[in-house]
Amino acid sequence: MKNVIYQPVIGLEVHVELKTKSKMFCGCSNDYFGKQPNSHTCPVCLGLPGALPVPNKKAVEWCVMIGMALNCKIPLVSKFDRKNYFYPDLAKGYQISQYDQPFAENGYMDLSNGRRIGIRRAHMEEDTGKLVHDTVEGKRVSLIDFNRSGAPLVEIVTEPDFRDSSEVKEYLQKLQQIVRYLDVSDADMEKGEMRLEPNISLRSLSGEATKQSLMRSSRSSVARDDNFELPNYKVEVKNINSFRFVEKAIEFEVRRQEEILRKGETPKQETRGWDENRQKTFSQRDKEEAMDYRYFPEPDIPPIRWTSEYVGKLKSKLPELPDKKLARFEKDFGLPYYDAEILTRNRDMADFFEKTLEIAKKAKTDGQKIDAKTIANWIINKKIDILNINPEGLVKQIVSAKKTVTIDEGELDKIVKEVLKENEKAVGEYKSGKQGVIMFLVGQTMRKIGKRVDAVMVRKYLEKVLS
Fold it and tell me: From its phi and psi, is residue 238 left (phi > 0), alpha (psi between -120 and 50) or beta?
């Protein structure tokens, strides 16, 4: 087994909590974070007998819009299912989720290296409560806070198309950016609003298979490397709340599994956790299969049927998404990729930039040119706080900074001669052909002037004197 090359086969399950006002199937406030434990509950989310769920229309629509943003197909008929649940953080003993008829399926996301990641599905479910492990009266106990129980959760499942941790990180960053652009979730991982669960296994490559796989991995055209048999096991690492941690967990698992495979053994199919302090994964439980959950249609919620017109209406609500906005900023405003990428990371920042540019075109700028590149430079380099300055204020700042004063030619001549006398070495270099030295002399002159004057005018005067 020493000569075998192992290639990671990675899929992702990402849970995104929606920021609706109420929970998924009841009227309880969804603003539960940091509140008194079990203060945001009712008979429905506590699973009391006779309580009936009512789907949150806004949450369902937002789930569909996430699917649309990920290039998914939207079936006209979907349904909810009951998923048998083994743990105490859902009081009713099952989770309302979706199994075979999700709200969105068969989508994709393209990465910067040209590879296409398949999106198997985006489905709607309810979140669980939170287990709190503590010591009470000297005894170790597990307490349950049901405030989060029933919060609307979208699960986005990819195909096993990732080949390394860097691809996973890029996908996750783009996914977070998309849901924030849609304004359906803040996706704050510290609050558990976006939770990451990679499924990791390794497949062996040899001979021609190795060559073809490496070619597919390196080519720049949009492609998926999916013409192979999946490994006969997979390891899931649950509930990671950091892009950096998910990278570390994947890299550790690849090393751990490779060591096992090289011994001629097969890694155990299981669910593991990530221990940041020890920088390693640890076993939690054997991994369940779909049959273990015993799904069946939710009897208290009828199937949900869409019309093509309604789906089209939801699609029309989609904002311009990050990749398209970035490409437009490059094309329409002539911005370099670096600037356009920074400005479009955040929808509010992108909107602020465009509004500032629109105002600058209409403002009286005393003949000064305030173009897209100038505004981009100010926002990026000066780290403009868009919460404390409006576009009009930024335009005024730029105009003020660009204003120059005039200087008497006699005064300029006197200062220039002083600068040339103090910098004889630079003058000699300039006269010997080092034209770039002129900018050093311009800087020295403007420092002596002590006022904001036209640098182009100063340069021309220097060149005139030096000639």
Answer: beta
- Are residues 192 and 7 in contact, defined by beta-carbon separation less than 8 angstroms? no
**What is the number of structural domains in the chain?**
3
Among the three residues 257, 290, 313, which one is the final residue of a domain in this structure? Answer: 313
Q: Which of 313, 340, 373 is the last residue of a domain?
A: 313
Assigned token pair, 408: 């008497």
How many CA atoms lie within 13 Å of 420's alpha carbon, on the beta-carbon side?
Answer: 19
Do residues 53 and 301 lie in contact, with contact meaning Cβ atoms separated by under 8 Å? Answer: yes
Average pLDDT in the 284-307 region?
85
Do 272 and 356 fall into the same domain?
no
Q: Is the pLDDT of residue 219 over 80?
A: no
Residues of the domain holding 445: 409-466
250: alpha, beta or left? (left if phi > 0; alpha if psi -120 to 50): alpha
SS3 157: strand
What value does the mean pLDDT take over residues 311-316? Answer: 97
d(CA 268, CA 234): 8
CB 152 within 8 A of CB 64: no
Cα 310 vs. chain centroid, distance in angstroms?
28
Residues 57 and 153 in one domain: yes
Rounded CA-CA distance 151/148 in Å is 6
Judgement on whether residues 302 and 325 belong to the same structural domain of the protein: no
Return the CATH number at 420.
Answer: 1.10.10
Give the model's confidence band at 407: pLDDT under 50 very low, under 70 low, under 90 confident, else very high: confident
Residues 90 and 142 in one domain: yes
Q: Do 173 and 65 share a structural domain?
A: yes
Give the separation between CA 315 and CA 322, rounded to whole angstroms: 16
pLDDT digits over 120-170, tens only? 999 999 999 999 989 999 999 999 999 999 999 999 999 999 999 999 999
Q: Are residues 335 and 222 in the same domain?
A: no
Q: Is the Cβ–Cβ distance between 406 and 453 less than 8 Å?
A: yes
SS3 (DSSP) at 103:
coil
- For residue 115, give both structure tokens: 């590879």
User: What does the radius of gyration of the chain's CA atoms come to, in whole angstroms?
Assistant: 30
Q: Are residues 294 and 443 in the same domain?
A: no
Angle at 32 between CA 145 and CA 88, to 5 degrees: 25
Residue ranges of the alpha helices (H) in 305-454? 308-316, 322-333, 337-343, 347-362, 372-381, 391-402, 409-422, 424-431, 437-449
227 and 337, same domain (yes or no): no
CB–CB of 163/55 below 8 Å?
Answer: no
Separation between Cα atoms, residue 119 and residue 102, nearest integer Å = 12
Strands 270-275, 235-237: pairing kind: parallel
Dihedrals phi, psi of 10, to nearest 5 degrees: -125, 130
In eight-state DSSP terms, residue 190 is G
